[in-house]
User: Fold this.
Amino acid sequence: MAFIGRVVIVTGGANGIGQGIASAFAKNGAKVVIADVAEEAGNHTANWINQNFGEAKFIKTDVRLEANIIRLMEAVHENYGRIDILINNAGKGLFKSLYEVTVEEWDDIIHTNLRSVFLCSRESAKWMRKNEKGGSIVNIASTRALMSEPNSEGYAATKGGIVAITHALAASLSDDRVTVNAISPGWIHTGADSQLTAIDHEQHFSKRVGKPIDIARACLYLTSEDNDFVTGINLVVDGGMTRKMIYEE
Assistant:
């Protein structure tokens, strides 16, 4: 329970990977704030955590809006008196022909996935730097920052930007004792196991598709006070998939 008493904000924590991250921190003793635009799902996740194994609170937040982010950080500090950890997990996809993507769609994904990382990191760091031991930020990027399929320009651009802004933030916040790292998940399945096939698992070196807990464990590692020597990195958690040759014998 190394995170007892520490206050953790997880953006996009209502569902999927974010839900897994929020749950893992709560299980390890942290006070978790779920910041998400999905009010019903966010309250459900917070209530489920409270009923089962930890302490969680939901604050409705649209990370596209600077005012929402400022209000979030102020509310968390007012409620708990500190902010120790931020997980920038909120994001959305955009997989559409570049000939059809509108400027509004492009701006929306940039604001949701990338600009939010800058704003949330800046506003949380204002409070983290007041802590005796600083704080930790983890940005959820993607292996799509490193490789692509067609019609993924918006998503790839934001995830590549997250990897780059991570080491910039690590440099800028070093004097404030705030570590900043990124995690690039590969294939992380958030549905029922029955939806996957044997081929899905076998194409990974790990011989299985990833789960939200795999990303949550990485978050725990990167935000542990024992690991303050680790900063500015992009940790790829993908079962080896981006290191696999595509050729078949």
